[in-house]
Design brief:
It is built from 5 helices and 2 strands. With about 130 residues, the protein is mainly α. It has one domain. A two-stranded antiparallel ribbon has the order 1-2. A hairpin with a 5-residue loop joins β1 (about 70) and β2. The termini are far apart.
Length: about 130
């Protein structure tokens, strides 16, 4: 086995029912870090992958409607098709889930985010 084979991330088997975009996210997240010791993070990752597939499904429905995404409401008035709002809400939830997944800062370029820098400064003030 070569050194690069030993360093390659072990990617767990896909959850049942994931489609193409969900599988891609699964590979990318598990390729970036080892989450095997965090079952709560594994659960969030799984749900985020299913959400990406749902986002794709909703986006296809909205695009199929063309430029006019309005439909007749219960009184005949024009209203936005429900998939538009569902898409927005699902995207918001998806982004929230991704933010909750913590990837070690050392895995990237080594630069701290502004938030991490502020947290470190606050810790230094309170613990010195």
């Amino acid at each position: 086995m070569t050194e690069t084979d030993a360093d390659a991330a072990v990617i767990p088997k896909y959850p049942r029912g994931l489609r193409a975009r969900g599988k891609r996210l699964w590979r990318e997240l598990h390729g970036s870090a080892d989450f095997s010791g965090s079952p709560e993070v594994m659960s969030v990752i799984e749900e985020a992958c299913y959400l990406t597939d749902e986002i794709d499904r909703l986006r296809r429905k909205v695009r199929a409607a063309g430029d006019d995404t309005r439909v007749a409401g219960y009184n005949g008035q024009l209203t936005s098709m429900p998939e538009v709002d569902d898409l927005r809400k699902t995207q918001t939830l998806f982004l929230s889930m991704l933010k909750s997944i913590r990837v070690d800062a050392d895995a990237g370029d080594g630069k701290m985010t502004r938030s991490q820098s502020g947290q470190r400064a606050a810790d230094a003030r309170w613990h010195s």
